[in-house]
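Something for you to look into today, if you have time. Could you write out one complete protein record for me, on any chain you like? Leave the record below and I will have a look.
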Amino acid sequence: MIRVLLVDDQPLIRSGFRALLDAEDDIEVVAEAADGERGVELARRHLPDVALIDVQMPVVDGIEATRRIAADPALAGVHVVILTNYGLDEYVFDALRAGAAGFLVKDVEPEDFLHAVRVAVRGDALLAPSITRRLIDRYVAEPPRTGAGDGLKWLTNREREAVVLVARGLSNDRIAEHMVISPLTAKTHVNRAMAKLHARDRAQLVVFAYECGLVTPRER
């Protein structure tokens, strides 16, 4: 059973998402909150698998709530998915840096919403191809961030290659095909890179790859 926490200050939005989730046999909504501070409290109390968190909320916003969850070792198993009305904006980039597994626009189709919740539990990045392209455009428009590439020295050549392929939006199966290895070995390379770079999930690997210049515009 996938345990979900809903954090949004709009009751109608929460009730709509809850109706969708509760109708699924493998998903359970364990708690709801109307602000980020309460959301973090409930995350600590219920230890959900996925926390769906709105960006703009009173008291504590979604970015700070995400940062607090990501910084708490006791909540390492909580995958934060940011909910936004605005698509890709500065809030979303900040949230990804803060530790979000990805994000969803609130007008997402119901089947895509449910799929995203299940994907989040697996630790995969919730970045659709169109979103990934816009994410790439945002990062390649700026020079690599100073010091962002320090973690590269800890990666093997194969792990570095796997990170590049993750940043291009490839699944483990596609990475395996590209690197001519088994899917299990591909997953191992990705997981080891995540551990060495202290990345909570694949979304943070994407952020790392572009911030440090590991992937460039020519490689898109």
Notes: The first strand starts at residue 2 and ends at 7. The beta strands are 2-7, 27-33, 50-54, 79-84, 102-105. The radius of gyration is 17 Å. DSSP finds ten helices and five strands in the chain.
